[in-house]
Design a protein that fits this description.
Blueprint (H helix, E strand, L loop, with lengths): L1 E12 L2 E12 L14 H8 L7 E6 L20 H6 L3 H18 L1 H4 L2 H20 L5 H11 L3 H4 L18 E2 L2 E2 L1
Antiparallel strand pairs: 1-2, 1-3, 4-5
Helix pairs in contact: 3-5
The chain binds adenosine-5'-triphosphate and magnesium ion (MG).
Length: 184
Amino acid sequence: MIIMQAQGVGRTFNGSDLFTGINLEVQTGARIGLVGPNGIGKTTLLEILAGLNPPDYGQVTLAHDISIGYQAQDSGLDSERGIFDELLTVFAPLIAMEKRMHALEAQIADPALAKDQVAFDQTMKQYDQLQHDFQEQNGYGYRAEIRGILHGFNSGKHLGHEGRYPIRRRARPPGPGQTAAGKA
Ligand SMILES: Nc1ncnc2c1ncn2[C@@H]1O[C@H](COP(=O)(O)OP(=O)(O)OP(=O)(O)O)[C@@H](O)[C@H]1O
Ligand SMILES: [Mg+2]
C-alpha cells in the first residue's frame, strides 16, 4: 500500500530553484535512504515530506491513518538523553496514552469504583476504547520498532540495554563564509 506520495515537488530559495519535479512513493514497510552531496537539499526535501514546510511546487499526499515522526538532523539533541530515549520522543502521543491507560487501570482496580456500577462501566468503556486505539497505533510494538531501527543502523551492539548512552553532539562543519569560531 502507498502511504505517501509526492508529485512535482520543488523548492525555491532566493529566487532560484533548489530542486524541482520530485516524484516519489513510499510503500508500507519501506526503508529508504536519501543520499546526496552536502547542501543538495536532502533536509529541505525531508522537511517538506514530513509536512514541516510546504513545497513551492507540487504536493505531498499522505494516507489518512498515517502520522509522521521526524528526527531532525540538527535538532539540538539533548546530550543527556540516549539514542533510545531520543527516538522515544517521536512516540510521545503513544506514551501519553500509555500513562492514561495505567491511570485507568488503577481506578478499575480500586474497590471503591466497583461500588458505583455506572462509573465502573464508564471507566471500563473508556479503557476499552483507549486500549483499542493504542493497539491500532502500534502501542504494543513501538519499543521493539525503535530497537529494530537501532539494530538496522548497527548501533544496538554499542548501546547496551535500550541504548542508554548519551548522545555526543557533533560540531556542525562551518558553512560558506564562516570559520569554526563564527562568521569570517
Ligand atoms: N531557509 C533557507 N533559506 C535559504 N537557503 C536555504 C534555507 N534552508 C536551506 N537553504 C539552502 O538550501 C540548500 C540545501 O540545504 P539542505 O540543508 O536541504 O541540504 P542537505 O542536502 O540536507 O545538506 P547536508 O548534507 O549538509 O545535510 C543549501 O544550499 C542551504 O544553504
Ligand atoms: Mg541535511
